[in-house]
Amino acid sequence: MTESAAAPEIRENPRGRDLTLAIARIIEETRGRDIRVLDLRRVTEVFDYFVIATGTSRRQMHAVSDEIERVVKADWGDLKRGIEGYDESHWIVLDYGDVVVHLFAAEAREYWDLEQLWSDAEPVELPAPVSEE
């Protein structure tokens, strides 16, 4: 039996983490539900973070997707590299390179269960919401 390989070194990506948390906040502000962030840097070299959330309707998922695109472009100067599923709206995927956003209808999220599929990823604790006063 061979010795187990050492855990891969984590690539530092503070901008990617900050962008990820900003996207999670946008989803929260546009009433996305069950928001999860996964740190995939130890699991794959293809991307660093997943943001996963559930939408309540096709219209709401479009609003979330559109707001992410608007804010990321305006505040971060970043353009999405790709988008899939917008017309079908069961699962919208926004690709920002190191950050991939998955917006699901409830049934599709349960079916695909990305959190289980990527269970080796490390969950990222989201900051508490900013209270509105």
Give structural notes.
It is a single chain. This protein is an alpha+beta fold and 133 residues long. The chain has a single domain (14-123), classed as Beta Polymerase, domain 2 (2-Layer Sandwich), CATH 3.30.460. The chain has four helices and six strands, in the order H-E-E-H-E-E-E-H-H-E. It has helices spanning 14-29, 58-76, 106-112, 114-117; strands spanning 33-39, 49-55, 82-84, 91-95, 99-105, 122-123. Helix 1 (14-29) packs across helix 2. The model has no long low-confidence stretch (mean pLDDT 90).
Features:
133 residues, alpha+beta, Beta Polymerase, domain 2, six-stranded mixed β-sheet, 35% helix
Tally of distinct domains: 1
Average residue pLDDT: 90
Please state the structural category. Answer: alpha+beta
Q: What percent of residues are in strands? A: 15-25%
What is the CATH topology assignment? Beta Polymerase, domain 2
Indicate the CATH class.
Alpha Beta
User: Number of helical runs?
Assistant: 4
